[in-house]
Amino acid sequence: GVNEGNFPNTSCVNPIFNQQDEEYLGNSDLYVFSRNFEIEREKIRFNSCIASSLGEVYISYRTTDEEGNKMIKSPFVYELESLFDRISVEKVVAPIVYMKDRFVYVLNNLASEDEMMYFLINSKNDNADLNILSDRTSFIKSYQHINYLSSLEEKRMTSSELNEYTGKICGEENLKILDEIHLSASSLNSYVACPFKFFVETLLSIQVSDESIEFKKNIGSTYHEILMKYYSETTDLYDVNEEKLKDAIDKTCEKMYGIKNDVILEKFRKEIYETAFKLITDDITNRLNYYKKTGAELIPSMFEKKFETEEHYGGNRFYGKIDRIDLERSIDGKLTGKYLIYDYKLGTVGGLRQCIDGLDFQLPTYYMAAEGIIREEFNIKNPTCLGLLYYSVEKVKRNGILLDLYKKYLFKGNSGPRDVLSKGSFDVVMDWIEKRGIENVDKIMTGSFNLPDECPYDNSDIRCPYVSICRYDKRERKRGENGEQYVN
Length: 488
Known about the structure:
extended, alpha+beta, 5 strands, five-stranded mixed sheet, disordered C terminus, single chain
């Protein structure tokens, strides 16, 4: 467009001298780059373009760029407008046309049947004028069929009554299957992410085989087992015992039947060794830092600790397995009651905000269970939690829920989670997360498996395995007050 910086071009501006400098040098018979000359030359080009027209001339300019930043029309346009009086300018200057409006389908200017169908099915007017289809009988039937299905979907989403289009699990006989649900932090996370996917996998027991997902799960399980074997068998707190690590890897890889090629298996072992070695080295550095600052040691004490509890989440029974619990030991060798929970993750790890938003219940659930485990197994009446941390195996990074009092002991410098909690705030947040968990458990137990407001796979590289049977459509209208989707 004819915008400032484009026409005249910005190269017309001297990068070194301003206009006064140029005039001063010119008066001294020193002629350098002439700003005025270049602008005049651009103006000649502009006038030549207009004069070469054989018919009408359209001059356009942009008001914003691709990022929404304001753009100014060229001074040449201002000069051109000054040639006309106010009334004439109003006649020759067209209203602003926004780029998005240039591609809107116009009813009387549809070029193909595809455009017609697109216009009709995206029209908010349910009683679209079918006269535009003239005598296209088959086309009209196709549209009417699509429109009928759309009306069914609308009823299913907004109807306040149960009918054949809403499928709430109801009736005592049907609700009995909900009593068999195996509740855990993972199942809560799964339900929050997508209640429909949770329903399909948990209640219908439908599992779609996805090699990439299964491979990641197997790799994650492999690292869990290796780290459990290593930490439970080694007594070296501050040195990597390479023999123990290799032995743990060899024993774990013996159980793997998917890799039959010896060369590939050896390469796989090497990669696992390098990744595990980095993680253990980082863990040793972190525990040494804690020892230097506090004079006490954090001892990896419990690994893959299974639990079953009914003390939280409204008395519902929850199952789980805590990857690792480190207990603090004083110089005289006694346990102080302080502890740190770790949960290993393969890649990226979340933090406090995901937990507060009710999207992640894993670390808080482990905290609720760990308090009882430590009291019972170590006879510690008042255990004190230092933090709840995810530990990324591949990225060698920690994040999670941390108490501000202990951050300087657990992390070096400014590293570590930005969001930390005081002891009072920690207790409040744990109570808040538990209440959110109870709300979701109640929804599960009453058979509410509505689709999420946003599909978790929308901005993901992974394709949802249940997309062929899922009714989610991000273009659908906003749900009404009674518009929960239920499943038969």
